[in-house]
Specification:
By secondary structure, the chain is an alpha/beta fold. It has helices spanning 22-30, 53-63, 80-90, 109-120, 176-181, 194-205, 233-251, 256-273, 276-287, 290-303, 306-316; strands spanning 9-15, 40-46, 69-73, 95-98, 104-105, 124-132, 138-140, 148-151, 172-175, 209-221. The protein has two domains: 9-226, Spore Coat Polysaccharide Biosynthesis Protein SpsA, Chain A (Alpha-Beta Complex); 230-325. Strands 1, 2, 3, 4, 5, 6, 7, 8, 9 and 10 form a ten-stranded mixed sheet that branches. Helix 6 runs parallel beside helix 7 (233-251), helix 7 (233-251) packs antiparallel against helix 8 and helix 8 packs across helix 10 (290-303). The chain starts with 8 loop residues before the first strand and ends in a 10-residue tail after the last helix. 40% of the residues are buried.
Length: 326
């Protein structure tokens, strides 16, 4: 292949046992209309798949010689956070973009995001997404906001209509220099919420974020294999605890609505996925922990709704059964 100019976008796709659907994902990337700009590199990071993922990806790359794609392989399974970090470290584009292996992009997604960035000079630009469900129905992922929003990153998690877009890393362009200069990476080991912690951290670091909620460029699909079940509740709670601790370090005393939402989410998850004596034991452990004493209780007491403040007061006084009403 002849010498190539540095890419405009480095698209990172973490992959683990995705042989049955990765080709469709790659085809959506190959179909990107970049408006004549030959500036998209695709980094597929295989996290030691045990199915035919590597063969499918290699076959696709061999049959598309003009596709600027690279397959990176982990010798052992390390998790999606490490796979995304491998992609970040290998990227050479001006901007980074993340795509899950079971999702796809609209043909003009990259072009539309680049146009939005050119118009606003934002460090992060984002679009809306469509949720494609298994019963052939679809819905807009972020229906609560309309139009374009251009705002400082620090204020985005507090915005009543826009904050939900901070929960996922996909559907966005990130200026790579912002991420590299602040050494922002995904936290390894989190089973849930690894993209929530990363995305909030990057957004809070960003001087300017631009979002076009009227354009759905990312196509998010249901994946039954990733659904939360009872066997995973312990890992989910541990991960949410790490997300809360990580966010508290980043935002300090600011962005109280963000910590409030995450504190309530943690207690709601404990109520929903915990049960019986196990749940009560986790509550007892929580009430003696820095997570409760330094983050959850002060945040809910200061900013929560009256009913949540009452529940927090009752929990503090060991009325543990009130968790059922969270």
């Amino acid at each position: 292949m002849p010498d190539q100019q540095p890419p405009i976008i480095s698209l990172i796709i973490p992959c683990f046992n995705c042989g049955s659907f990765i080709r469709q994902t790659l085809e959506s990337v190959a179909a990107q209309n970049m408006g004549g700009i030959n500036g998209l590199e695709t980094l597929i990071v295989d996290d030691d798949s045990t199915d035919n993922s590597v063969a499918v990806i290699s076959q696709f790359l061999d049959s598309h010689p003009d596709f600027r794609g690279t397959l990176l392989r982990h010798p052992t399974n390390a998790g999606v956070a490490v796979a995304r970090n491998t992609g970040i470290q290998a990227a050479t584009g001006q901007f980074l973009m993340f795509l899950d292996a079971d999702d796809t992009l609209a043909p003009d997604c990259c072009q539309r995001l680049l146009e939005l960035q050119s118009q606003t000079h934002a460090d992060i630009v984002a679009c809306n997404a469509l949720h494609l469900k298994q019963n052939n129905r679809q819905s807009i992922v972020y229906p609560q906001a309309q139009g374009r929003h251009i705002l400082p990153g620090r204020s985005l998690p507090e915005h009543p209509d826009c904050h939900a877009i901070c929960e996922t890393c996909w559907g966005k362009l990130y200026r790579r220099e912002l991420i590299i200069s602040h050494n922002l990476l995904f936290q390894p080991g989190l089973e849930f919420g690894e993209d929530t912690l990363f995305t909030h951290t990057v957004i809070l670091t960003s001087p300017l974020v631009a979002i076009d909620f009227n354009y759905c460029g990312y196509l998010y699909k249901d994946n039954q294999a990733s659904c939360v079940n009872t066997a995973k509740r312990q890992k989910r709670l541990v991960s949410l605890e790490q997300v809360l601790l990580g966010l508290s370090k980043v935002i300090g005393t600011g962005c109280s609505p963000l910590l409030l939402r995450k504190s309530c989410e943690f207690l709601w998850t404990l109520r929903k996925f915990g049960c019986g004596q196990e749940r009560l034991q986790r509550l007892k452990t929580l009430l003696a922990s820095p997570l409760w004493l330094d983050i959850i209780h002060p945040t809910i007491t200061a900013y929560g709704k009256p009913k949540h403040r009452l529940y927090a007061w009752l929990l503090r006084h060991h009325c543990l059964q009130v968790i059922r009403f969270w």
